[in-house]
Amino acid sequence: MVAFELEVPNLLGRRSPHLPCPCPRIFAQDLQPTGYMENSVSYSAIEDVQLLSWENAPKYCLQLTIPGGTVLLQAANSYLRDQWFHSLQWKKKIYKYKKVLSNPSRWEVVLKEIRTLVDMALTSPLQDDSINQAPLEIVSKLLSENTNLTTQEHENIIVAIAPLLENNHPPPDLCEFFCKHCRERPRSMVVIEVFTPVVQRILKHNMDFGKCPRLRLFTQEYILALNELNAGMEVVKKFIQSMHGPTGHCPHPRVLPNLVAVCLAAIYSCYEEFINSRDNSPSLKEIRNGCQQPCDRKPTLPLRLLHPSPDLVSQEATLSEARLKSVVVASSEIHVEVERTSTATPAPAASAGDDSEPSLIDCLMVSPACSTMSIELGPQADRTLACHVEILKLLSDYDDWRPSLASLLQPIPFPKEALAHEKFTKELKYVIQRFAEDPRQEVHSCLLSVRAGKDGWFQLYSPGGVACDDDGELFASMVHILMGSCYKTKKFLLSLAENKLGPCMLLALRGNQTMVEILCLMLEYNIIDNNDTQLQIISTLESTEVGKRMYEQLCDRQRELKELQRKGGPTRLTLPSKSTDADLARLLSSGSFGNLENLSLAFTNVTSACAEHLIKLPSLKQLNLWSTQFGDAGLRLLSEHLTMLQVLNLCETPVTDAGLLALSSMKSLCSLNMNSTKLSADTYEDLKAKLPNLKEVDVRYTEAW
């Protein structure tokens, strides 16, 4: 039976204005035996509610007994009559309990009334959120108005209302009361037995913590209470496992984003005092500039500038380019020490009108010319940070959660103070490593920045980044996985050459094979224009055995390419059906194909892997891949290198929009067959707009047909 909105008709069948059930009064009429109810009768004035059941009684009527008489309410049918009957009874009881619990005298009586109230809500045939929420709000108001209760009374009340919390979120004031209980008695059995199902329901069903932030705060305090138990993080780990479920895929899609939201809010709170003190302490820009600019703001926190010692003064006298400055900002919770050491030529001063804040890397870069920040948190903040970072690490261990977690963390949703905190970045490194080790592109691509001009985890954990503490080992693994799946190889190499060439050469000098391969690719693709830089890269490669070997192979490939171009070879070539990638590789390595213009691989078993051989055919103009397993990855590689291709047959290949969109860079295409592919209409229109020379197109048996 569901709750209703009360519509009060008269005995003649005329209906009154539409009135909702929660309205504090119903309407009655005084003078006429039938008609509209015009004068109000309060719910508290109703002495009794009965169903008319005697013989020849009016159909579908309720009898309300009030002081001085009775009122009959006639419904249209028995279902509506029963709805009115149960709703009126429920409303009468709610008013009764509000009155009883508003002036408590003996708490044993109050507890008994609360239990009766809960039983009434649980046994009500009405189905409406207010049926269970109203008792919770009554108890919430009772607790907020009586703050002198004992701990045992608190626990008795929590246990009494526990059945209502199984299917309902606690109201905000009740959340505040639960938070207080978690902080004051984290080892209480109430936390495990009563709060656990409540928090589980919040994480599974909550849609927006922004509408009720106290639900998030309660979840955070509950997790911290679990961490205070003897087993500590083991209990938290079991709780996370229970939220994920025993299968390989979590059946509750809201659990992960809700857990991440709780962790982000908790981590932010650890640095909140320092963040709020920005107006009274050196800003990140001032820290970066050594606090040389005067500050006339009145500090409310202890602020002390440490002057250089005499030894350092004498050192500055002898080394005019070396400087050491320290800033200490202390508060009750946070101690920040900033040391600045510079042996490089100072950067040109900013223009007088440039007040823009520096970028994240500019503020927090760890290099000889930038600030090194060491943040120490108070004991409670430190425990909170450790607990919630550990939860992020646990979340990253689940394969089904990792893609969504990487996407949620890609924008780096942490304050700059956290990224400047060595302990935080060291612990979070485990999560970034899990992203870098994941073979799925949707995961490891989140290491890159969200958009151009923004910093990503790739920058933060690269040599010179604020979070790098391993001489570039994580950076090398990130480069390796990104290069393995990155279809814009040249663009990625250009980015490395512009921003990370020094770290790449340093790691290659130390024998890192990934970095040696990167330097060889830079030379092979002519990424580096400067001759001196090229010579330096060559010297770096020749300094290690692995570098020498790869550089010799590069030289062989370059000579073979030049020889192919010089000697020429056949202009047309067709491989037998069932040929494989290995067959094509052996064929192309056995002779000279510098003049090859037309290549047919139709009905062979080649895949995208053969693209690395096809791009070495400089004169190729026509390529037939009909009914092969050539996919998006190979198509992307072709679009980068074979820009002069004129005819391309992709009929019955597994290519999709993701790869076909890359063809927009092949401006020479005049004939394109996409018959029986996964081409969409939008992609087709995009290709037509970007390929001006396209004359012949086959899109049969696609969405664009």
From TrEMBL:
Domain of life: Eukaryota
Gene3D superfamilies: Ribonuclease Inhibitor
Keyword Repeat listed: yes
Binding partners and assembly: Interacts with FLNA.
Species the sequence originates in: Microcebus murinus
Protein name: C-Maf-inducing protein
PANTHER family cross-referenced by the UniProt entry: C-MAF-INDUCING PROTEIN, LEUCINE-RICH REPEAT-CONTAINING PROTEIN 73
GO biological process: in utero embryonic development
Residues forming coiled coils: none
Keywords: Cytoplasm, Leucine-rich repeat, Nucleus, Repeat
All residue ranges annotated as the C-Maf-inducing protein PH domain in the record: 32-101
Any GO CC annotation of this UniProt entry: nucleoplasm
Primary location class: cytoplasm
Subcellular location: Cytoplasm; Nucleus
